[in-house]
Amino acid sequence: MTTNAHIEKKRLETPPATIKFKIQRREKEGAPAHWETFELQYRRNLNVISALMEIRKDPVTIEGKQTTPPVWDMSCLEQVCGICTMVIDGKVRQSCSALIDDLLLASNSDTVTLAPMSKFPNVRDLKVDRSKMFDHLKQVEAWVELDGSYDLGPGPHISNEVAQERYAFSRCMTCGCCLEACPQYGDDNYIGPQAIAQARLFNMHPTGKMTAEDRINGLLGDDGITNCGNAQNCIQVCPMGIPLTKAIYETNRDITVNALFGWLKK
Amino acid sequence: MASSGLKIAIVGGGLAGLAAAMKIAEAGHEVDLISVVPVKRSHSVCAQGGINGAVNTKGEGDSPAKHLDDTVYGGDFLANQPPVKRMTDMAPEIIYLFDRMGVPFSRTKEGLMDFRRFGGTLHHRTAFAGASTGQQLLYALDEQVRKWEVGGKVTKYEGWEMLSLVLDDHQVCRGLVAMNLQTLELKSFAADAVIMATGGPGMVFGKSTNSQTCTGSAVGACYEQGAKYANGEFIQVHPTSIPGEDKLRLMSESARGEGGRVWVPRDPMDARKPKEIPDADRRYFLEEKYPAYGNLVPRDIATREIFQVCLDGAGVGGENQVYLDLTHIPAEVLTEKLGAILEIYEMFVGDDPRYVPMRIFPGVHYSMGGLWVDFEQRTNIPGLFAAGECDYSIHGANRLGANSLLSCVYGGFVAAPSAMDYAKNVERGSSETNGVHAAELARQQEINDSIINSEGGENQYKLHEELGKVMTDNVTVVRYNDRLQATDDKIREIQDRFKNISINDSNLWATQAVPHARQLSNMLNLARVITLGALNRNESRGAHYKPDFPERDDENFMKTTIAEYSAEAPVLSYEPIDVSLVEPRKRDYSSSKKKA
Ligand SMILES: Cc1cc2nc3c(=O)[nH]c(=O)nc-3n(C[C@H](O)[C@H](O)[C@H](O)COP(=O)(O)OP(=O)(O)OC[C@H]3O[C@@H](n4cnc5c(N)ncnc54)[C@H](O)[C@@H]3O)c2cc1C
Ligand code: SF4
Ligand code: SF4
Ligand code: FES
Q: Please, are residues B106 and B114 in contact by the beta-carbon 8 Å criterion?
């Protein structure tokens, strides 16, 4: 049955006249970082990106110093492409869906702090290079093997239950929040939860299953799944609610079953 | 792997570009894939509702022929019909292919793919994966192309922006020049053929439902170099978007497909909460006027009705907003079928649409116009092909919901063999050595240098805002000739001022200022094509509506508008269309349509 109870969103009742944005700046990779603060008039319905757009138009710091426009990445502006991820008030998340009112309400202040993700090369200001995450997808062969893309009729029958479970994994937008939060991830020593979950996505598919071993093999190396310390930080920051710890658990289970009985007997 | 010696460059890694890349790699040829953003982050991820194909699993007697009819009828008889037929015929196999690639489509009890209804049809024809179908389809192609990348057939250049084509002395396309967005390095990509798959131009309107990368800039560059641009004036304004500071977020048509109802209080100033307003005091204006299709009339019609209601002061609270109401549907059904899009509303507005009717207003959404192509996706420039939202070929005067993802994949699947055929037969000559690449590189470097050195004081972001505003005000839902003329004057004024911009960024490393300036310059050219195309078309058809010319005029305007660049103004001409398959008839959605 449906319940009509739902929680009314808490709103910022007494907004400040101006909002400050404290932004970490870096000229280019390897250059030292420093902070600059900008000030904007308060407006309702601002998000971090519209604030950055406003600042970029005329980049003058709160001290009145003309400076370079902050650089960041953006595309979809609706939290589905993952590109705009950064660390906002200490928490890794997408800047397009970070509403200023909510941030001020949570921090009980008039300042929003923006920094780039720390686990990836920092290209400039708030922009990072996450190409490593796409390499990880190669390592776990995150695709279904097809005989060809020509017409071979429909795919296998699949229950809606399995389809929905796979859908939950398939929404991963490679944003990297989970890697930023994972205490084990860094310096290339661990492939991280995102790729494990993607391996799981294909190992759950009737066709994908047939090559499950290749995917698992990609997770058995030095940087593999055993590095996970089960800290569960990843799942708490994932904006898409990907069941990451479940993926890790089930993949570990598959590996154990394989070690005991071999793939063919499974 | 043995190399075939053919190299095809694809610009853009949305659905269309990836579809083409997969086909070319599979045929054993090499692909350079150039994209502004990592391809997995392309705008196609935004598509929510689904993809059409007359798979007919619901015992409704659906067929590709009916899909063809719905598409050309919905498009108000402006599309050439043969490619539409080829697309609707191919649609079921395209959907099956995605099924085999592992897209988690929603399923029926039997474990088959489920289909939902979308606008402009009476059939359940739309396959969907939750409410993020575009994301799921794009990921499936991204995965397959990654496999080819590992196999050495596809080389990706992500974080590169195409600036221009490399044309030889005979106006044959020999490759392209792109800019590295980190270093600003320019590089020429030699190729036997080039496929443009760069998506739509929503940013010309400032705020739209499109991603920030949808500038149309690359296509604008091709146009300036001699590619024909067709039907530019046909811009789809989606009936239901969520107005925002930075963008207009889409509320997918699937909300209405699943039973969402559009209404306004009979008294716009009704102070009661929407749920407390009884049916008798509500006006379901779409259902009243269009009993057969109700809330699922085609987009152009829904948009105009909502726009008009608000113009008449009958919007909620007298403002530019109407209710889109789902609250009569059980919350868990909504969560399963529409979860992702309802989250977007909740995330950005704060209210939970499962319990509170949404407030929506129309927003610029899609360009039916684009690069002119023939029935094999060839542009008028030899060696240059186009596919996806950046080509004009399928949707006529108005696109039906869930037909775009289909047309993108179809376009990629046709452009790929077409480009390979061309590449096999093209005279190679000495284009490599006769200096055309070096010359184009030098020309592009000069443009960059002049932007970097310009210190006239104009602010390019403010110019872009001015462009967006004037385009949104005058070249969207309702169009008047005097305002269109004034808009063109304004665009030319902005073009003049553009010559005096200052980029305001002394750090050129990974700067966004230079790419934005390049984009803006191309957007201004496209804006003129859109505006003057609209000015010249004195009729109303699909998304193009002029109160002074309210009727469709087949005799004079059942023709493709073609714009060709000249420094003075776009040169417009008209090309007859092929209506050999479905006899044109008047559109009427107040009753279910019968044969012509
Ligand atoms: C919010 C929203 C929802 C939608 N929902 C649906 C739906 O439910 N069903 C449906 O059928 N359609 C839908 N559409 C329409 C559909 O999503 C698009 O038309 C389609 O995704 C376009 O795909 P594409 O491959 O042509 O281009 P895109 O996906 O836009 O990709 C363009 C590519 O080109 C690259 N690019 C652009 N410029 C350059 C350059 N200068 N140099 C190099 N690379 C460049 C980009 O990086 C990107 O990779 C929706 C659209 C929106 C805005
Ligand atoms: S459970 Fe902990 S260690 Fe394992 S991936 Fe998640 S955050 Fe990292
Ligand atoms: S699993 Fe979640 S947090 Fe990690 S990359 Fe995917 S979407 Fe982002
Ligand atoms: S811009 Fe795409 S997730 Fe924020």
A: yes
